[in-house]
Design brief:
about 280 residues; 8 helices
């Protein structure tokens, strides 16, 4: 059953599938994404890609969205948020801009365990060109997205992490910063070493996303004490509720803005986040 199932009371015939987009970690059985996949049947993208292989990760996401055959909710963590952004830039019905604006384009991303071999450097635009050439735009299938603790890429991190030059050489930089073409919520931690909360808020504003304050959860990974995440389903439901509200509008009616989230669903999600419980 989808994590979004409780949002189905409005339009039960169109419950979106959930696709989990991992960061640069390998397999981590206690990661909340892997718990969610086991407990709900959500689609979990591969975790065995080379840490910097953006091209393969973008293709994995495109393939999963295409295979879903219907609306999807994307739940991304850490560098998985960046994968999602680059995928949207290459598969959107409207091409998203990439520019070094504000906090974007200066630094490095989370690679989970801090290890792993790097892929052969790629053309920074290869993920967009190659994927877009092989598949029709599918971003219109996205009901919404939950973007958890995105790295802001403002500083070089310790030596176990990729350098800025590596990221740029593999196409991760610059970050796409234009508004996303679907509703999104950004889960921001007040103690994330890879994404200072004010910088995350600035990026969320660029993407047209609202911000969910997760509190003191570090990078929202097992190393920060966050494994199973009981309140996650409610947060995903709040993303779906926005899409359902838009889908229920009469034909030709203006869709609600990305910030116009149904109050009840968002309040319930914010109250039931369940972080650390």
């Amino acid at each position: 059953m989808s994590a979004a199932s409780s949002a189905s009371s409005v339009m039960p015939s169109v419950i979106p599938s959930v696709i989990l987009v991992p960061g640069l970690r390998g397999s981590a059985p206690d990661h909340w994404q892997e718990h969610l996949a086991r407990e709900t049947g959500a689609v979990h993208l591969r975790t065995d890609r080379a840490p910097l292989d953006l091209v393969a990760r973008v293709h994995d996401l495109q393939d999963a969205v295409a295979a879903a055959g219907g609306p999807v909710v994307l739940v991304a963590h850490s560098a998985g948020v960046l994968t999602l952004l680059h995928w949207a830039a290459g598969h959107g019905s409207v091409e998203l801009a990439t520019a070094e604006v504000g906090v974007a384009g200066r630094g490095t991303a989370d690679r989970g365990d801090g290890r792993g071999s790097a892929a052969t450097p790629a053309d920074p635009t290869a993920a967009r060109r190659g994927s877009a050439a092989s598949a029709a735009p599918s971003v219109d299938r996205v009901a919404g997205a939950l973007l958890v603790t995105p790295p802001t890429l403002t500083e070089e991190l310790p030596p176990v992490y990729p350098r800025r030059a590596e990221l740029a050489g593999h196409g991760w930089l610059p970050l796409p910063v234009a508004p996303l073409p679907f509703p999104a919520r950004v889960g921001a931690s007040t103690t994330d070493p890879l994404g200072p909360v004010e910088q995350v808020r600035a990026l969320a504003e660029c993407w047209g996303a609202d911000v969910l304050d997760l509190g003191d959860v570090g990078h929202a990974n097992p190393a920060s004490g966050l494994g199973r995440w009981p309140g996650l389903a409610a947060i995903v439901d709040s993303v779906v509720a926005v899409w359902l509200a838009g889908a229920a509008e009469p034909t030709g009616a203006a869709r609600p803005s990305h910030a116009a989230h149904p109050t009840d669903a968002v309040a319930r999600a914010d109250a039931l986040t369940g972080v650390g419980s």
